[in-house]
């Protein structure tokens, strides 16, 4: 059988330098797993060694060493531009007290069998817990006692769900039960770590299935999700409860972090907005606005970066606003959201429609037409922002405008172009401005 391992020269160099200094060193964790899965070269290369942090620094004295997690035994070494995380063998405990004496002891405290393998080009694969077999079987299984592994680090609960979602694997029964049983541990995990795991989980191809089974776990880190579970919509346009609809939308959007988060939150405000008409039909007036407010609060709490949070909240707020497949309204959207934002909004609308009952499917054609309009506008380099105007600030200063008046005049031109009141041509725009008494009173001309 061919050797599936193809290590970058920097990894081989690091292993050799540590060994030459008298220490053990092995490639460990996700890099080993991904090589066995045939995923090729990854971004993260982790090495476990018997050397202590200060000894690692001495070995790589001629390279740049970053004390990433010095107190936890981890340093990042930059070799020929590649970052390598090199960590002292650990037992799972904090600080120097958690240093292990051997590779075997280190692997015994790793989270899952598929991550508890080590590799060295000379000695080959070290697999003490059946990780390779679990990869073949598609199983996520804790190393040893699941309760102990999760109590060592509560984030491992979400990591387990993430691996199941990304690799389309099943969670071993004892591991799955332990995740349900220990879900409260997530309350003590740092928000930014929760956000990172959720983002990767949401983008997994099996996220819908995993979140359906582990909804109780999801609600610990994002309790605002819980009211959606089993909430019937009592509306002919919806043949699923709010949570099942949300999961369907989640699966229907591309695996982009912004889109997946927007799909998760797009109806999160519905339970609080529910009302029922006399005929028993359910309505959710104003749920887009409330969903956006909840999404903003949750993402702020989870330390999501501002740019992503802003885009997600905007998509959630607009997800139930109709998109007309006509140049003017699409140009307006381009002005407000930009090309990428408009494409994301259309994708969210399409997915929302797919998640509704069959009565709504005719809307899909409308969104396909909107995409065609968008493509044509971009092909024609349509004007949808100030920088696209055929006139610029220097044209206006030449006419005698200065300071804020220049920006105001350009915005007036843009609004007129977007409304179709004037063409985006230099002479037409100048004539339009000169005829506007707001900018050029008759006495000034």
UniProtKB/TrEMBL annotation:
CDD domains per record: HDc (cd00077), NT_ClassII-CCAase (cd05398)
Q: Which parts of the chain are coiled coil?
A: 360-387
> Cell membrane as a keyword?
no
Q: Which residues form the Poly A polymerase head domain?
A: 25-141
What Pfam families does this protein map onto?
Answer: HD, PolyA_pol, PolyA_pol_RNAbd, tRNA_NucTran2_2
**Signal peptide extent:** none
CCA-adding enzyme C-terminal domain mapped to chain residues: 367-433
Gene3D superfamilies in alphabetical order:
1.10.246.80, Beta Polymerase, domain 2, cca-adding enzyme, domain 2
What the entry lists under InterPro entries is as follows: Bact_CCA-adding_enz_type3_sf (IPR050264), CCA-adding_enz_C (IPR032810), HD/PDEase_dom (IPR003607), HD_domain (IPR006674), HDIG_dom (IPR006675), NT_sf (IPR043519), PolA_pol_head_dom (IPR002646), PolyA_RNA-bd (IPR032828)
User: What are its cofactors?
Assistant: Mg(2+)
Q: Where is the tRNA nucleotidyltransferase/poly(A) polymerase RNA and SrmB- binding domain?
A: 169-214
HD domain: from which residue to which, for each copy?
258-325
Q: What UniProt keywords are attached to this protein's entry?
A: Coiled coil, Magnesium, Metal-binding, Nucleotide-binding, Nucleotidyltransferase, RNA-binding, Transferase, tRNA processing
Q: Which NCBIfam families match?
A: HDIG
Q: Which family does it belong to?
A: Belongs to the tRNA nucleotidyltransferase/poly(A) polymerase family.
Protein name (Swiss-Prot/TrEMBL): HDIG domain-containing metalloprotein
Q: What organism, scientifically named, is this protein from?
A: Flavonifractor hominis
Q: What is the lineage of its organism?
A: Bacteria, Bacillati, Bacillota, Clostridia, Eubacteriales
